[in-house]
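During the second year of the project, the team shifted from modelling isolated chains to modelling whole assemblies. The rationale, set out in the original proposal, was that interfaces cannot be judged from single-chain predictions alone. As a representative example for this report, we include one of the complexes processed in the last quarter. Its constituent sequences, exactly as entered into the pipeline, are reproduced here:
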Amino acid sequence: MTNDAQTVGELGEARVLAAILARLGPSRAVIGPGDDAAVLEAGRGRIVATVDTLVHGPDFRLAWSSGYDLGWKAAAVNLADVAAMGAHPTALLVALALPDDTPSRLVTALADGLREACDALAPGCAVEGGDLTVSPTLTVAVTALGVLDDDRPPVLRSGARPGDVLALAGDAGRAAQGLRLLFERFRDDEGAPVPVDQTRLTPDESDAIAAQLRPVPPIRLGPAAAAAGATAMMDVSDGLALDASRLADASGVTADLASETLGADAATALSGGEDHALLATFGARAVLPDGFRRIGTVRERAAVAVLVDGARYDGQTGWDPYTGWDAALG
Amino acid sequence: MTNDAQTVGELGEARVLAAILARLGPSRAVIGPGDDAAVLEAGRGRIVATVDTLVHGPDFRLAWSSGYDLGWKAAAVNLADVAAMGAHPTALLVALALPDDTPSRLVTALADGLREACDALAPGCAVEGGDLTVSPTLTVAVTALGVLDDDRPPVLRSGARPGDVLALAGDAGRAAQGLRLLFERFRDDEGAPVPVDQTRLTPDESDAIAAQLRPVPPIRLGPAAAAAGATAMMDVSDGLALDASRLADASGVTADLASETLGADAATALSGGEDHALLATFGARAVLPDGFRRIGTVRERAAVAVLVDGARYDGQTGWDPYTGWDAALG
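Output from the structure prediction step:
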């Protein structure tokens, strides 16, 4: 038995690993955790693979994120990258680097968050492998693997054509609103993060913070978009304006966003990252899958990659991890 | 152009990424780096997937390891896990977490090391995706993917049977000898690592340090062992005695190692990790593939998982990351 107030340094690798594996639920793989590598079914012979990392400080603060939140978000952001190719997520590999004073209850909660995000967002997907190491900085690197429907090609960023409809599934700006609330309301006089006091939040504010800490990207809509003939698709992780410019650059087109489709706070919708919505383009006559809404039009390549209401957009566009964060931990 | 004395914080994400991609060489994937995820051929429908992480401090010190060494080792240790399943490595995904004061030349050298390790150890395998983030702690998490030869099952840890030959391909104890030399000879009066002065090393010592910093695991011998009918196989990363006990436990047998096969320093061969040799078992009549040597025999399960020369082994067995390292950086 592990006492969940013990640290991972006190427990040692074998018992920390056993505590994690006990939380992960059944493997769906040919060979799941426990050997040198996992062995996974790959459908008709092509797989989709991506990796994304959450680092204590730049990507989360433990005063704000629980272990459960962290596991959930680490799964969700990677599932979204698989979905954005039009694929079904099938497996996660989780590389956990933990300070030796990490409470084991944080690690087991993290495993719970990983499992429940998979079950909620991508049923059938599970953690099938990973790695556990010690580090001064709590780091969660998740690899997500997925399969494409039979004989269907992946949906790339580069397939948008002039005249296509620009469509979005999921939130735009909500996670950024939540992050702003965390920075404005839940820091001490020195600027260090302090725990979230839900009694100081309206239901809408609480919902925005949840969008930041436990995003719910529309994973099943990735394969649905592929089936509906999406010409291009990507995960919106760094803000709609910046990510739309990436899709437009890859496709050699210009994305013209309609601000009236972006809600009351269009500026935050355009600049705010971490919602992990799906941005997709469809031919002008395509029927958008339920869950997608039209947010603009693809045009011939203009002087810039992104227009808003037909004009150049001069607002803040997005997030660079090497210039965009302060070093305060919590 | 990037000036390689600039830091990643000065350059920003886009230029660091461009500098890395310029070093990686051609993609062999259906879709390589640049979209939300890579798309990879998966042979006859099963893939092998593993992840392993190197963390500054516990796993390497920059006074001893160059960026090139680090990239090479991060690739090699993961390729070995794929090979240990009997599979051919096909792709790496690399999650790099970098302090913002990291010199960009370290990052480009790391990319060179990744590429050259793939080319030397697993031709055809390349970096096909990754993630770049900022962290207080330099961390390299590599996911390796591979494919099995047509219709051949993976070689697991659990297939060893009494009477099988226990065989090893690659070094045992060499990387540990190198690590001991680094700790004994290349630290200052406070114990902090200092750069390796090759003029203070014999050729044999220099070779041992190279085995620690740039291991050369016998990747091609993993599929060769599978083709020769290996009944079980694993990568030896934590020491021969400890890893043999894991294979024996998984198989419900006891591994009896013959000390006279382990060289002049059998104790280091038994306890020393990080060689990433391949430990495999074969039926008594099998012809061992060139590169494997017999190091013992598989016996009916005894009271303990590992014997040495038929007797219980009381020496040091291996390495636990949460109890085995000191916190000095360098």
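Residues 321-325 of chain A have pLDDT under 50 and may be disordered. The first helix of chain A runs from residue 8 to 11.
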